[in-house]
Specification:
The chain is mainly alpha-helical and 267 residues long. It is built from 13 helices and three strands; from the N terminus they run βααββααααααααααα. A three-stranded mixed beta sheet has the order 1-2-3. The two termini are 38 Å apart.
Length: 267
Amino acid sequence: MERVPGAVEEAAKAGDIGALYDWLNTVSDDVNRYFINDPTSNAIMCQHDYPLLMWTAACGIITPEKVELARDLLARGAEVDKSDYIDRTALHWASRGVGNASPALVSLLLSAGADVHARTKHVGTIPIAFTVDPWAFGSQMQHLSRFSSEASLVIFERLLRAGSELDNISEWPNDSLGSISASSESAFEALATDASFQEIKSITANVLAAGSYGAYLHEQRKQVLSLRSLANRGRAATAEPVMNFLVRLGDNGVVWNVLSHWPPPGR
């Protein structure tokens, strides 16, 4: 591994992503051999050196500019699942939800083939656990001075759609998404009334009860069809425009086809 030139590194850490682009355009060899030394971003994690793609997810706030840099690095051959000293990947880091652009980075990494089942060393934690981890919310407060739990919810759902499991998120004894969520609520009392965080907990419980994310979605779609049937018979009404649109559709097969694309990718 080789460190990015000092002036470029300092400019990037100060937010000048253009300096990195200028330097990258002079690089003719493998981008995976270079790293940025950024010990202040996550000092408590003893992590100092970050491969370039991982740096976009791990250090500071994930901005649209960093997402575009990640896209450029992937196009240059960056390894999407290149890991750090305890086998965290860029997807692990991005799943913390530090910044409104973090869901876009997660989507980019997933489209590039990032492994939702990748496990860290020792504890064996997969990326979806980081959406509810106390460390993630601590990072949000450190860099944003607020929670970005809305981003965490979007990331959580995108990881589910990508095939992440919920019942085996860690190899640590008795560790589960529920126990990790409880630790976060204990550390940050405001999460007890945070709508997005509570929605993650609710979806987790419902998916585990249904047996799989696919079965959970199937049950949700069945409930929509039942409500549509009641509405068509004048026994139910809603002001929800999407539901009214479904009610007006005349064929259950068409409705089911529409519902097969629910929830929408933008969520």
